[in-house]
Design brief:
By secondary structure, the protein is an alpha+beta fold. 37% of the residues lie in helices and 24% in strands. The protein has twelve helices and 15 strands. Strands 12-11-13-14-15 form a five-stranded mixed β-sheet, sandwiched between helices. Strands 1-6-5-4 form a four-stranded mixed β-sheet, sandwiched between helices. Strands 8-9-7-10 form a four-stranded antiparallel β-sheet. β5 and β6 form a beta hairpin. The radius of gyration is 26 Å and the shape is globular.
Length: 409
Amino acid sequence: MLTGKIVNSNFSHIAQKLEDFGLGVHWGTTVGDDRATLLDAFRRAGERADAVIVNGGLGPTVDDLSQEIAAQAAGVGLVLNEGWLARMEAYFAKRSRIMPPNNRKQAMLPASAEVLDNPVGTACGFALDIGRARFFFTPGVPRELHRMLEAEIIPRLLARSGVSAVIHLKRFHSYGIGESHADSLLEGIEALVPDGSVKLGFRAHYPQLETKLVVRGADMADVERKLAPVQAAVRTRLGNFILAEDSATLEGVILAALTERQATLAVAETFTGGQVAARLAPLRGAETVFRRATVARDLAQLGDALGLTDALAADVASAEAAARAARAQAGASHALAVLIELDEGDDRIDFGGTICLAIATEHEVSSRRTRILGGRDWLRLGAVELALDCLRRYLQGLPVAERIDFEKV
């Protein structure tokens, strides 16, 4: 990370997750794989914080130093954790592999450490006291960190902070509405619970916006009572822009709707590199729904692949023709076509493209045309999200052509 070759996305994830539960981050330190600097960083952190999360350095290689330096900072020795060693051996045996000798290092923990479970990897998380702080050591692999943070660390931090109330996070995912627009629509919503126990927040990660409600209550029944009027108001005010809630995803909502109808889907797309199909095809259950994707770099190639005799253009009629052809060719009940015509010239902030998409069934076709500016990447991300969201809207009986904040008309 110190070379700039790796972006520290784990820190961002940790900070956002802690903020969701009312836990603030006051310091962030990035330190290299050097014994002296690591020891100094641990000791300094142990003097200035109540709790410290250390990410990385729990692997089997020679530059993974977290256990060794943690033990030195805490003034204890390293001991072999037989239970974790057995877990690792079983992990490798299940995959018909022999555990390399250097993996044994991952079961060497400071003598005073508390084990933090890692059900999806071999790195053993642990906690121990250094100075006045409780340290939590986590693996650098993102999916392992995410699991450990939510299941092992946040509950311990909340207990350590003395928070006796139950804290619940409610999330709404939307597309087509900007952060400032959503903020204005939800103005005053916290006042629906006068005791100040509901906090509103946002996380913009184009092309989606996440709206968060953090609710505190004496118990879960109290949380649900407070949450009920606020989440009802959010659903009313954000309306059709809400595409999913909590851990649900846009593609998951679409797949569930198609599955419920016993429907099947074909996709035809240009410029996106097949990313519309890539969001749907790998999902569990998609094997009974997803029929085929036709992906081409330009409109002429797509028309040839779909067997169309008339040339495709960046217009609604062509999108509708492509959707009908894709549906017929794949024998699917539904088809989604996404046709994109790029502006001329180099990539720039006002670079954009015209997007025409259509959704075809046996009896009807629904379509829309729009423009998105912001550069090639922005256009590609926006076009993929727009296409999937329009399919979601169609399946839910909502207007496909509703105006969004990101289009240039």
